[in-house]
Fold this sequence. Notes:
This protein is mainly beta and 694 residues long. Helix content is 13%, strand content 39%. It is built from eight helices and 33 strands. α3 (540-554) packs antiparallel against α5 and α5 packs parallel to α7.
Amino acid sequence: xxxxxxxxxxxxxxxxxxxxxxxxxxxxxxxxxxxxxxxxxxxxxxxxxxxxxxxxxxxxxxxxxxxxxxxxxxxxxxxxxxxxxxxxxxxxxxxxxxxxxxxxxxxxxxxxxxxxxxxxxxxxxxxxxxxxxxxxxxxxxxxxxxxxxxxxxxxxxxxxxxxxxxxxxxxxxxxxxxxxxxxxxxxxxxxxxxxxxxxxxxxxxxxxxxxxxxxxxxxxxxxxxxxxxxxxxxxxxxxxxxxxxxxxxxxxxxxxxxxxxxxxxxxxxxxxxxxxxxxxxxxxxxxxxxxxxxxxxxxxxxxxxxxxxxxxxxxxxxxxxxxxxxxxxxxxxxxxxxxxxxxxxxxxxxxxxxxxxxxxxxxxxxxxxxxxxxxxxxxxxxxxxxxxxxxxxxxxxxxxxxxxxxxxxxxxxxxxxxxxxxxxxxxxxxxxxxxxxxxxxxxxxxxxxxxxxxxxxxxxxxxxxxxxxxxxxxxxxxxxxxxxxxxxxxxxxxxxxxxxxxxxxxxxxxxxxxxxxxxxxxxxxxxxxxxxxxxxxxxxxxxxxxxxxxxxxxxxxxxxxxxxxxxxxxxxxxxxxxxxxxxxxxxxxxxxxxxxxxxxxxxxxxxxxxxxxxxxxxxxxxxxxxxxxxxxxxxxxxxxxxxxxxxxxxxxxxxxxxxxxxxxxxxxxxxxxxxxxxxxxxxxxxxxxxxxxx
Length: 694
């Protein structure tokens, strides 16, 4: 599987480098940005058993790409981001089909005999490479180890130089795998490549940097350490994460300063076992017995051998190739180690299309999908792909915490699946994710679910002997007859009393003296208030979105009484960092009105959406008692109120907002009612503390 992924990445890289060539001649490449891409090579360096394994190196390369025409200029390696994986050779006819390593001939164990009893067989005839002809086994490659540099001829000397490579040619016999006719070509290959500045000088060609670095940026790089790795269980171990904070120039690419931050957090990762069942990272010896009931077969093929790469069929979702032998790995669900494989032969395997976003044509098979206008878009975040992400067991039975410095915000077409936009979101953050339990152990962080607390059986207490009741002496004082006040005749029209809220939270009985209370008065429904007019009957989410945007424009601080009971402490920290608009919309979602957000939900920031998702996940995992307690909080702090419109009574509720403008507080109340399936703004009230009963 990895082989085809790597080949696909290489094909995509080559196409991306060639695609803009048609328009590059007319572009001055005045504005460029730095991008990173990957290519895959195979090596035996660092492999302790080269007869069985090779190293698959996914090399990171940095390129300068023109902002106007998209042309990429030849890049240079960025070894810090390389990915290295040790894989077993895939021998076909004695040659590894990936790296070309020749399969070792096993040394036979012979039983010596005193005298040979038969004429020895003649030595095998050496392969004469009868099938060497053919373009697919003839290669040309550039010797990246032996290269020189020159400054002249680059299209953008401030950022680029010319790299000159030796060119080698030859062929590989498809029968025995031998490389033959290898020779160095008289020609040389030249490519433009980005400067690699250090202290203002390119370490490759010696060019002196002229950039003044007017717009420096600061980023972090994270890495795990190979010290203090502690095993958690048969599946996981914990390690330290270190970080470097570096300042660099986006105009020329030079790194200006690197500040080591040391250990910034810990992370949890899976063991990677060798053939002796020992983790290569922490040395833990696997003790799992891999019970048959705890094994699962992967739903994808881990490897396959093909007679050729001819595509035999295609449909709207897949194209297919014939394989002579395909394998699926059987993995232990407890420890994650591969314990067996399932082999099938003569299998037809489907591979998802790789569509060109512009033409809609699959790069591999040519299938062209129907044109789509991408009218329906879906936006979502993918925290699994966070750069530098770590996971931590925080002791909760419900969730663990992911921490990272960035994640991807993706926009896809909901109709055809095309990736329309991809945005990296930066900034330190944490996010709660539900545990992935198997046998009461989280497969991600190793948390062991707590045993349920048994309900104690109460010990019966014997009833004490009854105490004799004393005889009650009659009272000599006569009983006072209360004076009955006459009931006042009702007025024809009831007087609308302002809504009042006591200034004190003390529920004790008030005296008869003056009291300071918070009195609410309605806002004229035809007058614009915080950007909305009540008489326009805006939808609930739309109204709060507009109010939030209006208040954000004033740069004020707000408090929403009761929301601190809906969110936990960590969520409140994230909540208070949001804009006013986001806080109002997150409150709606936490109250159970996520379905009413509509387009306003799409307008929320990425941090607000992430908080909304995490709160929803936490609430979904509450116990029955916890859910009832939450409903009691909502009923108390956001009580239901009947609302009468045109003589008809509707279900309604209110949200209070306290606004602090440099120490001067304003109290606002927004009331909504439900008409059919839609929640609508009913009224706005403004509160003021007044002395009543003076």
